[in-house]
Amino acid sequence: QVQLVESGGGLVQPGGSLRVSCAASGSIFSINAMGWYRQAPGKQRELVAQITRDGSTNYADSVKGRFTISRDNAKNTVYLQMNSLKPEDTAVYYCKVVRTRSGTTYVNWGQGTQVTVAS
Length: 119
Prior knowledge:
Blueprint: E1 2-7, E2 10-12, E3 18-26, E4 31-39, E5 46-51, E6 57-59, E7 67-72, E8 77-82, E9 91-101, E10 104-109, E11 113-117
């Protein structure tokens, strides 16, 4: 079993900043990619940012230059620093962890944390 605990969401004004965190614990082995997805009401879940074990990153075009993903491998934690937030960034943000073992891939999702950008 893997537990993912997300924290750091909340309400922020347009132009503000937030940092969300996701800590993985439990049966941790061979964590490869860690990432953040988001889902706004009435929309599909979409990739926000992803980071591999060696630090390679990719971002959704809509957040490039504003969001930064990072990870602490020793703590099995991934962070998403969100700057210059816009109302359209409002969504539930989900952490995703991808692990591999003996050729099998395991995917775990966090419970989600709400981020609301409003005046």
